[in-house]
Structures are given as C-alpha cells and as structure tokens.
Amino acid sequence: MTFKILNFAAIMTEELKELKDLLILPKEIAIISHRNPDGDAIGSSLGLAGYLKNKHHNVNVVFPSEYSSTYEFVRGIQQSTIFDLEPDKARKIIDRADLIFCLDFSGLDRIDKLGENVKFSKAKKVVIDHHLDPEPFPDILISDIEASSTCEMIFQVIDQLGDRGKIDRYIGESLFMGIITDTGSFKYHTRPQTYETAAILKGIGVDDYGLNNKIYNAQKERHLRLLGHCLANRMEILQDYGAGIMWLSKKDYQDFDIQRGDTEGIVNYMLMIEKVKIAALILEQPTIVKISLRSKDDVSVQEIAQKHFNGGGHKNAAGGGVYASLKDVINRLKRVIPEHLPKVN
To answer: Considering only CA atoms, which of 297, 325, 329, 338 is closest in space to residue 311?
Structure first.
C-alpha cells in the first residue's frame, strides 16, 4: 500500500531545496536538542542522526543535560554527548561542525550555555521545530506549529527529500517514540498526517506495542510511589473553575529521590477528572520554580505560560519557569486562572 503525506506546508519548499543542496556532499554535522530532553527531543535527534549517517555524513548528537533512564533503550543514545557531563567535548563538536541542526526548540535560551557556541558558529544552522514564535537565528527554518511533534516533521522532511527508503526500523522507532510521547499516545495534538506517518513507520517494521511497553511499562517503584503522593497529598482542585494544581517541593525531591524524568506525565492525571479543563504541575527546583500546563478541549495554556510564567508551548501543552518561591507561583496561578476559565456552572 502506498501512502501520500498530506500537504506539508508549501512555505517549506525553498527551505527544503536549500537543505537538500547542503546534504549532497558528506559533512561534519552536529545535532542539538533542548535541555531536559523528552521523548520528542531524543527521538528526533537520534532519528535524524540515523538518516544522516545513512547518507554518509559524520554526525554527533549533543544534549545540554542528561536524559531520563526511560530512554536508555533507544539505539544510539549511549553515543550522544551530554554538555553538563562533557562540556569541552560538546563545544568541540559544535566548533568543528559544517552544519548544525537544532531540533524541538526555536530559541537559543533552551540550550543554556551552548547557545553562545551555536550563535557564533560559522556552520550553517537548521531549525526543525513545531513550537510558536521561533527566533531568527537559523539559516534555514522549518517550522510547523500544527505538527504533532518534531519527530513527525523529521519524517516528513526526509520523505520530501526523496529519502523515505533510508528510514530503517531503528530510525522509525526513534521517530515513532517522539510521536507517542508528544501526543500522549495519540490522545492530543494529532492531525491526519500524524496517523499516516505512524502507519508508514509501522509498515517499515516499528513494533508500536513493544515501544509503548518500554516507555510506559518500565517505571521504577519509586515513580509510582511518587505518583501516589502527588494524587493523595499534593493535588488541589479549583472546583469553581475546573482547574487542577499539583506541586512538589524541594523536600519532596529529597524524600522520593526524584530523578530526571520521574515527574513526566504526572500532570496529565488531573485531566482525567471530568470537569477539569486545565492541569498544572509546579516543581520547586534548586534555583527556579518550573510549571507544566496541560488542557482539554479548546482551552489554551500556551497563553498562560507566555503571559505569566516566562514560557510558551502549544495550545494544550505548555510550560515555563520563574525565579520565585513555590508559594508565590502557586498563588500566581490561582490568581490568573479566572482570567482564562469561566466559572463552572
């Protein structure tokens, strides 16, 4: 069966032509994604790396910070470089690159100290991303805010470059992983292309059941105990507005030995409550308080994150961070929610 990807935005045509020309001859390529890499950041980076290696480029993947142990099964992740652990090596990779891909972020502040190296690098810079308001730093910008994930975009870019045949099962697994994690297993922010892409990747040989199992059914015991603590002791429902708030303090981080990735997905549990339209998870970290926002239906959390928490994201999934106390951030959220949600009848 032959699938045709629907209407990948026509505005990308010239950018894709320029990218195709850049990839004709083997190059030294660096792929970078954002700090605290999630499934889409990791999947898009390793998926693109596999494709570029199949085209005989020399490719290195750099993440600003460590990834969750959940993703250790992904092929190629052990060969990636973590800036926080090996800063000199990471900088050398960027300095010697002819071409730099920036994936799943569109502002240099998302890669912290690496931002300066990328900004002043003489390499051509390519951004492939699905978030709002990209910064004008790349030479080639491929942006599609309607895409489910950067992984979906990577597949479509490869496909439009005429190289679908270079996507093997391992590349497909990486890309499918990002689609799964950014859509909550196809529960939100999907479109026809999302399902078509998934169908093609499954046809290549991706084991979607096995992949879901590795991502969602391999949690540590402490993760479930943390979830129980959040639901029983750290959840407040604002019944008048249909909003749910959870928070974790620095003491919670110590008591439950919370590691990178342990809180991923917890915010979504509040959306299971019938009348809850907005859910927020607020995390007190050593120097900053982070907030993750999710919503149902036509309620936008992107505006809340951008206006009140120095953040951004998508309509139904956004986040931010502020330098304030945990109590102040919780109170701020409670003050702004009535501006964005009508009272529940």
So the answer is: 329
> What is the per-residue pLDDT for 345?
67
pLDDT, position 188: 80
What is the reported pLDDT for 221?
87
Neighbouring residues of 48: CB distance < 8 A, sequence distance ≥ 6: 31, 101, 103, 128, 154
Report the alpha-carbon distance of residue 259 to residue 254 in Å, rounded: 10
> Taking the CB of residue 239, how many other CB atoms lie within 10 A of it?
12
For the chain, which residues score pLDDT lower than 50?
A: 1-12
Note whether 16 and 202 are within 8 A (CB): no
Q: Is residue 322 within 8 Å of residue 288, measured between CB atoms?
A: yes
Look-up of token digits 């604002």? 238
pLDDT per residue as tens digits for the range 255-288: 999 987 789 889 999 999 999 999 999 999 999 9
Domains in the chain, CATH or no CATH each: 10-216 (3.90.1640.10), 222-340 (3.10.310.30)
CB 281 within 8 A of CB 289: no
